């Protein structure tokens, strides 16, 4: 699964390049998640997961607090959660998750981003069946053997635990997110390089250098869209 970790790092690096945009996207997601449930992360598991992910992207506390306060105040903005699926260069597969207050606008913008950058939209289900929802944690300054032993002591089954680039990566079923996090925290591990639910391709594919350049343009165009929250793909990038 090491290649999957590379794709996660690539996504994080791309987001780090435009922090203001990333902060705005997190503010929207935090607001929506807090408004849909309790604004208290202790009582709202979904909100706690968003805040965990926001922490790994260094989202300022002030932005998080403003979004939660806005939800507490009964903000009038309403957003729909949408998923688009499509294909990029060389038949690569892409999933786009969005939060929007204008479905027609977002659909048009996503379709245009695909069309102008060597891709095309697919129908619902045309791509997602090749991806698995996965809980992923990244821990530094630990060994994979120690982490695996720790999780086994807590009777937690995980998909994989591996060590790469001085980071231990834990892949688990999505419903094990809280159990894994709690087990780690009980053993003094409270800082994560990644802590999120993501969509991982069942099989990563390699493409030509030319196709990779085109794919990078397509992914960049999708990430730039204000309503797009997450973009997933199945390509193993050549570094």
Automatic annotation (TrEMBL):
Q: Identify the residues that the record assigns to the TACO1/YebC-like N-terminal domain, covering every copy.
A: 3-74
Drop me one GO molecular function for this one. DNA binding
Where does the source fall among the domains of life? Bacteria
What is a single cellular component term in the Gene Ontology annotation? cytosol
Keyword tags: Cytoplasm, DNA-binding, Transcription, Transcription regulation
Q: Where in the cell is it found?
A: Cytoplasm
Question: Main location per UniProt?
Answer: cytoplasm
Question: What SUPFAM superfamilies does the entry give?
Answer: YebC-like
Keyword Transcription among record annotations: yes
Coiled-coil region: none
Q: Name all TACO1/YebC-like second and third domain ranges.
A: 79-235
Q: Which Gene3D superfamilies match?
A: 1.10.10.200, 3.30.70.980
GO terms classed as biological process: regulation of DNA-templated transcription
* Membrane-spanning intervals of the chain: none
Matching entries from HAMAP family are given as:
Transcrip_reg_TACO1, Transcrip_reg_TACO1_YeeN
User: Member of which family?
Assistant: Belongs to the TACO1 family. YeeN subfamily.
Name the NCBIfam families on file: PRK00110.1 (NF001030), PRK12378.1 (NF009044), YebC/PmpR family DNA-binding transcriptional regulator (TIGR01033)
Q: What is this protein called?
A: Probable transcriptional regulatory protein KP77_13390
* Species of the source: Jeotgalibacillus alimentarius
């Amino acid at each position: 699964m090491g290649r999957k970790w590379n794709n996660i790092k690539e996504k994080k690096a791309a987001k780090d390049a435009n922090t203001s945009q990333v902060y705005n996207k997190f503010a929207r997601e935090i607001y929506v998640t807090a408004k849909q449930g309790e604004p208290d992360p202790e009582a709202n598991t979904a909100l706690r997961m968003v805040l965990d992910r926001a922490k790994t992207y260094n989202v300022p506390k002030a932005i998080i607090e403003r979004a939660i306060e806005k939800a507490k105040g009964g903000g009038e903005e309403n957003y729909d959660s949408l998923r688009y699926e499509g294909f990029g260069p060389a038949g690569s597969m892409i999933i786009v998750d969005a939060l929007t207050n204008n479905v027609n606008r977002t659909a048009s913008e996503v379709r245009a981003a695909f069309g102008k950058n060597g891709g095309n939209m697919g129908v619902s289900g045309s791509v997602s069946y090749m991806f698995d929802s996965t809980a992923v944690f990244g821990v530094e300054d630990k060994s994979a053997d120690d982490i695996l032993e720790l999780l086994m002591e807590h009777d937690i089954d995980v998909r994989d635990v591996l060590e790469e680039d001085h980071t231990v990566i834990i892949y688990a079923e999505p419903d094990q997110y809280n159990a894994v996090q709690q087990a780690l925290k009980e053993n003094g591990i409270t800082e994560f390089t990644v802590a999120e639910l993501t969509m991982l391709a069942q099989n990563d594919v390699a493409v030509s250098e030319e196709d990779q350049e085109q794919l990078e343009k397509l992914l960049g165009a999708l990430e730039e869209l204000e309503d797009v929250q997450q973009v997933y793909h199945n390509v193993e990038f050549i570094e």
